[in-house]
């Protein structure tokens, strides 16, 4: 006899009608991460057209999940989540944990977009663990067919981390050469910095201190449960 509660099908169907359209959940997750401006959300989500993002934001507003706030003095528009959207956080978090446990690592990582990955890097570097000075890091990706294969990460004491596709003549402190799967694997804690270096998928040169302390200042997803962390095998690469 099934232990499923009565009445679960209808509510889930209604929830899917709101959340199933493509990009809806990634948009909410990006806003959960703190993005409020249209271009911030677009860069964070990645590969979504401005027209479709505009439509999805209007849909979310119509469903009472976000609020559009316009500054009368600046004409700047921010999008913020309502309490209804905030109450979705446990469900989205559970969905993410399920994916970590059940979706093959290679399939997930192959879909990682380099520009999106680098945009997310703004929040994935612990600046408190870096020397208290301006630091410039160059990331070069070997993936074929990229619109941009080189990005620069700029940190300054007391300032937000910046990601640039051009750098105005600053001296580069650290050079990082990799591919999107390797870097994403490190961030998701599915491999280690040392392993990627040993396998020739991650090359780091430049400032010796920054290289040696990379495991301190670069974010890695916490291993909440060892069974949730999938190791990328060499046969999958």
Detailed description of the structure:
The protein has 237 residues and is of the alpha+beta class. The protein folds into two domains: 9-102, Arc Repressor Mutant, subunit A, CATH 1.10.10.10; 105-236, 2-Layer Sandwich (Nonspecific Lipid-transfer Protein, Chain A), CATH 3.30.1050. Helix content is 40%, strand content 15%. The chain has twelve helices and seven strands. It has helices spanning 9-19, 24-32, 38-45, 50-62, 83-86, 89-102, 105-110, 114-120, 180-187, 193-198, 208-212, 214-217; strands at 66-70, 77-81, 135-141, 150-155, 162-164, 174-178, 203-206. The protein has a five-stranded mixed sheet with strand order 5-4-3-6-7. Strand 4 (150-155) and strand 5 form a beta hairpin. The protein is globular and about 55 Å long.
What's this, in brief?
By secondary structure, the chain is of the alpha+beta class. The chain contains twelve helices and seven strands.
Roughly what fraction of the amino acids lie in strands? 5-15%
Following the backbone from N to C, one meets helices and strands in this order, namely HHHHEEHHHHEEEEHHEHH
Average predicted confidence as pLDDT: 84
Q: Give the CATH class of the largest domain.
A: Alpha Beta
The computed structural class is alpha+beta
Number of strands: 7
